Amino acid sequence: MNILIIEDDPRIADFLQRGLRAEGMRVQVARSGAEGLDQARAAWDDHRGGGETTVVILDLMLGDMSGLDVCQTLRAGQVELPILMLTALSTVEDRVTGLRLGADDYLCKPFDFEELLARIEALRRRGRALQTPASPVLRVADLELDRMTMKVTRGGKVLALTARELALLELLMSAPGRLFSRERILANVWGVNEDPLTNIVDVYIGRLRSKVDAGQAQPLIHTQRGLGYRLEVDPAGSAR
Hints:
single chain, Arc Repressor Mutant, subunit A, 5-stranded parallel sheet
């Protein structure tokens, strides 16, 4: 995943850059609004040429110009990258203004890094509509999910899944091999306001596994104890 951070506070920019790179993301940093506009336009041009979508993390209070002006300028120029506005201003009026000018989400400082990751992931999923049109069918080994009909098959056999199980499976299949923490799964499938202490993720993983992997020689849903879940073919060292 590509991330563009537009932030003029070096401490915050460096913290975000280190943390997001540790999560395996490709990160660029713009230290001013003008630099951010140039990099966002370049990222949009790259996307339109077939490149991956870039999620923009935009500070509201920049030294050379307002983050609101940056957002409004990008949207006026038909730059449709997902934008997460990051700011210390937390009034309803501030949030409404940012969203009306084209921001996709709004996160107030101080923030929890895990919540930031969950919001970035949600924006990435929303940004799929920006991607170059591709097959609506997700495939991992002999498991297929048709996102147009939400029909799931394994080895040609139709699997009967509930709406929540489908959402969970789609998330896991959207990035084969990626480890999803329980918190990220909660944020993407149930919403960020769910109690992080609930065991609902484990319950639904168990239900999904019983339908996807039951009776199969090759299990696809794997547990990394204490960290989360991934869907892939026979990862080395994983435990069910």
